[in-house]
Amino acid sequence: MARSFMLLALAVAVVGCAPVDNSASTASASPSTACTKEQLALVNPGRLTIGTDKPAYDPWFKDDDPSNGQGFESAVAFAVAGELGFDRSEVQWSTVKFDSAFAPGEKQFDFDINQVSITPARAQAVDFSNGYYTVKQAVVAIDGGKYAGAKSLAELKDAKIGVQVGTTSLAAVKEIIQPADDPNVYNEQIDAVTALKNKQVDALVVDLPTAFYVTAAQVENSKIVGQFSSTGGTPEEFGLVMAKGSALKPCVDKAVDALKSKGELAKIEEQWLGSAVGAPELK
């Protein structure tokens, strides 16, 4: 069921602009919740079935093989499985088309992981875990350009920045970078991308998932200068997708929260989405 890189990446990019519904992920496991492996209600008894799309691309997965534990989302999935008591031999991967994961209806997975933002509309049809990744903003520039080597947000003060209207990226430019000149604001993201390609702007600010796509498929010889966190407003998060009313949700929430509190999610993020893949943190 392979589909083109562009279609998949565009889907990811669109997801990255979605608002968050905090009410969709507030349930948590109480002390009495049965979260031992033997007591979990699973699609396939004795095995944890995890869904994702195919092809599965970097940096979320490596070598189109979710089962190898490499890539951000493969690593997160196995970490959650471990918290639930499953070793790698007890995890089964299932191919699930991106939009099918959060469509209404019965699911053939225990949870799906595929850069799916938590939104109110989707939460009407499926359950989401507590967020496992808060989407960050990223700066993209032409490699070798004046700002391509910036190591801090302060170094971008004099840059002419391109950004799409009405996005969290625009708010981040104004509130966090605060450039000396107003950014060039475009009605469509493709127009902002074209402006960078034509060197009408020095840099482009988009969410990090979109930045991976821009540098891989849209603008030749471009690079991610770095990533940074937004402040203010409601954070945009990816969540694990489960069937509506899933009995697993409290236990999956508990697992995600445990990984957060132990710092494991932060370590996985740094390994697969940080400086190791050319997206260092800009302070």
From TrEMBL:
Highest taxon listed in the record's lineage: Bacteria
Keyword annotations of the record: Signal
Gene3D superfamilies: Periplasmic binding protein-like II
GO cellular component, one term: membrane
PROSITE patterns for the chain: PROKAR_LIPOPROTEIN
Domain Solute-binding protein family 3/N-terminal: 47-276
Domain Ionotropic glutamate receptor C-terminal intervals: 47-275
Leader sequence segment: 1-23
SUPFAM superfamilies assigned: Periplasmic binding protein-like II (SSF53850)
InterPro entries: Iontro_rcpt_C (IPR001320), Solute-binding_3/MltF_N (IPR001638)
A molecular-function term among this protein's GO annotations: ligand-gated monoatomic ion channel activity
Name the record gives this protein: Amino acid ABC transporter substrate-binding protein
Organism: Nonomuraea turkmeniaca
